[in-house]
Recover the amino acids of this structure.
């Protein structure tokens, strides 16, 4: 009974880890989405549904064709369409004649419901084994996100091209495969050193490098196929980037229940309150809060990505100009869908980086 799930940038590893820890040995890793995936998804989706729906549906069709018959995806009560992805996708796939089972994982539901849904996915795991599997997953996710953060810094500054890419590929695999919490924590501590010792960087470039945060709707912000590899494009321009959005923090119960830790997304939601008092789905509150917080941390600007017809992120787009002006924090909003052209997209990123460079030079004097 091969089990598969949507491709999701480096988080694809996170789901592989979770399933392995739950004892599944029949995981079918999702294919990286291609033009065909996007065409398949668009052909069978409602016309105005958001782009991640289409891309994940396209992935499911391709994987069912390859032999998968169990599908996993996030679910549960959400503020936007996301919670309805799987019931609608199930109807579409059934209409297409596929025979399969859907396993929605209610990531933001009550912990007990989450454990029950993971038990259903797992290989007869007990409650304790399921909790342990989830704990290992969130710890490994911390390290995967740390690797990504360093990747986007070192790739912008490396002297020899592709060194960072090669190291990251190796480290991601090491994190997925390592066994034992002790070994895992040791590996986690070594990650910054491994970057430092392996990659030679251009120290001149580092002095005046522009730093940009990438925020927006979580799927488009974290899936390079959909965001046309925004980090690589910016890193190639010598810009250090970071993901403002983190999936790991949302599942990191170890930190979430620690009263002494306030996670970045919690700080961002608080900072956004004067402008948007309630959560309304997507990452709207976090994006608005990040304009303020990244300015305070002296970052140079934010690139905001959102899928075509995404309701919550349209709200971000309407509030952001006021906040960006008030805090003097440049903010570039780009809408993405399956028709987004690479050349126009790159031109807008280049123009934004030029603007930030000129601004920085003016400030330095
Ligand atoms: S946040 Fe936007 S793109 Fe994501 S599921 Fe909700 S409506 Fe769709």
């Amino acid at each position: 009974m091969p089990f598969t799930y949507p491709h999701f940038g480096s988080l694809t590893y996170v789901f592989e880890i979770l399933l392995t820890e739950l004892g599944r040995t029949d995981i079918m890793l999702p294919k990286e989405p291609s033009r065909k995936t996007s065409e398949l998804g668009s052909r069978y989706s409602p016309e105005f549904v958001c782009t991640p729906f289409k891309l994940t549906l396209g992935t499911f069709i391709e994987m069912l064709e390859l032999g998968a018959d169990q599908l996993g995806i996030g679910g549960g009560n959400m503020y936007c369409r996301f919670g309805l992805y799987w019931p609608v996708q199930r109807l579409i796939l059934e209409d297409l004649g596929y025979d399969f089972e859907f396993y929605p994982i209610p990531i933001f539901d009550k912990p007990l419901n989450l454990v029950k849904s993971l038990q259903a996915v797992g290989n007869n795991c007990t409650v304790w084994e399921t909790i342990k599997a989830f704990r290992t997953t969130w710890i490994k996710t911390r390290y995967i996100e740390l690797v990504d953060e360093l990747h986007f810094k070192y790739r912008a500054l490396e002297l020899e091209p592709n060194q960072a890419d090669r190291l990251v590929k190796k480290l991601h695999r090491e994190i997925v495969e390592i066994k034992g919490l002790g070994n895992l924590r040791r590996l986690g501590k070594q990650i910054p050193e491994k970057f430092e010792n392996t990659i030679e960087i251009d120290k001149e470039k580092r002095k005046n490098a522009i730093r940009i945060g990438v925020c927006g709707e979580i799927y488009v912000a974290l899936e390079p196929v959909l965001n046309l590899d925004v980090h690589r494009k910016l890193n190639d321009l010598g810009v250090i980037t970071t993901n403002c959005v983190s999936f790991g923090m949302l599942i990191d119960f170890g930190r979430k229940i620690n009263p002494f830790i306030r996670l970045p997304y919690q700080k961002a939601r608080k900072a956004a309150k004067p402008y948007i008092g309630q959560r309304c789905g997507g990452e709207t509150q976090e994006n608005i809060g990040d304009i303020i917080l990244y300015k305070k941390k002296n970052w140079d600007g934010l690139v905001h990505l959102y899928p075509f017809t995404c309701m919550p992120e349209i709200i971000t787009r309407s509030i952001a100009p006021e906040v960006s002006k008030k805090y003097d924090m440049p903010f570039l909003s780009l809408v993405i869908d399956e028709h987004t052209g690479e050349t126009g997209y790159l031109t807008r990123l280049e123009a934004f980086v030029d603007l930030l460079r000129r601004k920085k030079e003016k400030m330095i004097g």
About this structure: The pocket of iron/sulfur cluster is lined by residues 50, 52, 80-82, 217, 219, 281-282, 307, 310-313 (CB under 6 Å). Strands lie at 3-4, 70-74, 101-105, 211-216, 240-243, 301-307, 331-336. The mean pLDDT is 94. The two ends are 64 Å apart (CA to CA).
